[in-house]
Specification:
Elements lengths: L3 H9 L48 H4 L5 E5 L3 E6 L30 E4 L4 E7 L8 E5 L4 E3 L20 E3 L5 E3 L7 H4 L6 E3 L4 E3 L17 E4 L3 E5 L10 E4 L2 E3 L2 E2 L6 E2 L15 E8 L5 E8 L2 E9 L5 E6 L5 E6 L2 E2 L17 E2 L13 E2 L8
Parallel strand pairs: 10-12, 14-23
Antiparallel strand pairs: 1-2, 1-24, 2-3, 4-13, 5-6, 5-9, 7-8, 9-10, 11-12, 14-15, 16-22, 17-18, 18-19, 19-20, 20-21
């Protein structure tokens, strides 16, 4: 039976159903003692972070603009990005094709941080996202939210099928929020002409225009091109593929996704209260987070009737969900988190790799100590 101390905050979320979703900042005990100076957060070429043995990699700059909710560290080869995977903007509202997933904070930290090459290498045989990478992320937005292929794991355009909210995102089967569209709105924080994301091959993704405001020249099949000022980089596009339509640089594909990458924290299991099947006639209204950052509510209409999924993180690591039913009753379930397969989606999709690097997962390399840090660990491992 669920404790009343957990039930009351969940029920109180009903009163805040029209409030804007807001993800609270990382608790003070998890914040670094020193953060990147505010004056440098909007500059692409950052000076060396305090305590660094070398200069801050330019690739860190887009993420530094969202500190302390997004943290970065690096070594000679890679930039490591840590985040909860939940943005500050409203989530989920307007989704019409919903498979009953809800946003849950992730723990992309430590060994589960996103790893991005600092020295990208052009692939001898670049791979297209039309036939590859139908699972998992292909890029990481500057706010720490993963960006998936514009095609879902069935090969359909997620945007055209009504699966995305007004910011181009939704949740996968691991209850992990991610985008399938270019998050160009991040330019409001970053400033025009700054990268809005970085592809997992290490090349930056810019908005619709070049940094000088001009329209980009001809783009290749992956939505990128090479310029004298920036070298190779991708651009957001208003039509498919919206984001990078594959990889100009070297990546490894394993089971239809870029490898390695963090796995989503799988909390729920299917049962009488919850299924991952599409809920016909549903329209998501909003997503609300309580002030304590531990209680959540997703409000939706089913054939015009107001319903909700309310859930909370418990001190013992479990999650309690309250599902409202069309007949006016509720069903309560408590779940113990477990790890699911990496990538945040269902069964593998797409073809096996034809080019670049692919095959079996390579042994995990030893993690050398980071040579510099803008933000240290954000969350408990």
């Amino acid at each position: 039976m669920m404790k009343s101390s957990c039930l009351l905050p969940l029920l109180a979320l009903t009163l805040a159903s029209t409030a804007r979703a807001h993800i609270p900042p990382v608790e003070a005990k998890h914040r670094p003692t020193e953060a990147a100076p505010i004056a440098t957060r909007f500059t692409f070429f950052l000076p060396a972070a305090t305590g660094s043995t070398g200069p801050t990699p330019p690739l860190a700059a887009p993420f530094a603009a969202f500190a302390p909710k997004v943290g970065v560290r690096w070594d000679e080869k890679y930039l490591y990005v840590e985040a909860k995977g939940l943005p500050d903007h409203p989530l989920m509202a307007g989704i019409k094709s919903w498979q009953q997933q809800v946003p849950i904070p992730q723990t992309y930290v430590g060994e589960r941080a996103w790893r991005i090459p600092l020295h990208p290498v052009p692939a001898k045989e670049p791979m297209s996202a039309k036939t590859h990478f139908l699972r998992g992320a292909i890029a990481l937005a500057a706010n720490g939210v993963p960006i998936f292929n514009a095609l879902n794991n069935r090969g359909d355009d997620a945007k055209k099928f009504g699966e995305l909210d007004s910011f181009g995102g939704h949740c996968g089967k691991g209850d992990d929020y991610h985008y399938h569209d270019a998050p160009v709105f991040l330019e409001q924080t970053l400033g025009k002409g700054k990268p809005i994301a970085v592809a997992l091959d290490g090349y930056p993704i810019y908005g619709f225009n070049e940094p000088d405001g001009g329209a980009p020249g001809k783009l290749d099949e992956f939505g990128g091109h090479d310029t004298k000022a920036l070298g190779y980089h991708y651009h957001a596009q208003k039509v498919y593929p919206y984001i990078n339509g594959g990889f100009h640089g070297e990546v490894t594909e394993v089971d239809g996704q870029v490898d390695p990458q963090p796995s989503a924290s799988h909390v729920r299991r299917e049962g009488s209260a919850y299924s991952q099947q599409p809920l016909r006639g549903a329209l998501i209204k909003d997503f609300v987070v309580a002030a304590d950052g531990k209680h959540y509510a997703l409000n939706y209409a089913l054939n015009g009737k107001a319903l909700s999924v309310k859930y909370a993180a418990n001190e013992d690591g479990t999650w309690t969900f309250i599902y409202s039913k069309p007949d006016g009753t509720t069903e309560t379930e408590t779940y113990k988190p477990g790890e699911r397969r990496a990538g945040g989606q269902g069964a593998p999709g797409g073809e096996r790799p034809k080019g670049g690097k692919g095959g079996k997962r390579p042994p995990a390399p030893e993690q050398p100590g980071a040579k510099g840090e803008v933000t240290k660990q954000l969350l408990n491992r």
